Amino acid sequence: MDELESPQGGYYVEPPELLARNLNVGARLFIAAQIFFYGGFLFAFFYLRELNTGGMWHPDRVDAPVGWGAAISACVVASALVSGAAIAAMRRRDDAAWRPGAAVALALGAAALALQCIEWATLGFGAGDGGFASVFVAWTGFYMAFGLLGGLYWLETTLATSIRHRGEAPGLVVAAAEAPAGARGTKALTAPSAEAATINLYFLAVVSVVMFILLYVVG
């Protein structure tokens, strides 16, 4: 049997250090792609605001609710910070110490999604009510549907994997025989993905703050 072959499933597992490096680079490439994606909304905001065709950039009846926006952004930022604190706890101990913080981070992210849905349901304008309204609806919609929801799904699957493999013998989870004893087991499986997901959450928190400033304050 190859030293990287699982004695249980017969498949091959990357050494922990390689897995961590791949996920670290992958997370940064994913964030770079998202920068280009959200950059389109950023360009649309400033371009349409400057153009202001027919004075229809921001009609008086279009009013973004600052309270809802602040609550949503606060939940996203808190989710990222709690996830970061959970990562610090895992580095000191193991992934069992990470799971409660990860669950709280997921709950805060879910709260942001719920608040956003409530805000959409109570908005007094739609995407057709001027340039600002179209940017507002599109930016918040794509951010929630593909950004935050995707980031939370990543964190949730990592948490589910950690729970699924808790209590298993290290060699059955990470089959790399040359891996140091402290780097094997469920922590070796959880830590790289959890850290990469948290980096993504940090980025989403920054985007959320930028959105709040532009869509709710600058307008």
Short description:
74% of the residues lie in helices and 0% in strands. The protein has 219 residues and is an all-alpha fold. Helix 3 (95-122) runs antiparallel to helix 4 (131-164).
Write up what this structure looks like:
The protein is built from six helices and no strands. The model is unreliable at 1-12 and 169-184 (pLDDT under 50). The chain is elongated, with a radius of gyration of 21 Å. The protein has 219 residues and is mainly alpha-helical. Helices cover 74% and strands 0% of the residues. The longest helix is centred in the N-terminal third of the chain and has 36 residues, at 16-51. Helix 1 (16-51) runs parallel beside helix 6 (186-218), helix 2 runs antiparallel to helix 6 and helix 4 (131-164) packs antiparallel against helix 6 (186-218). The relative contact order is 0.19. It has helices spanning 16-51, 66-92, 95-122, 131-164, 170-173, 186-218.
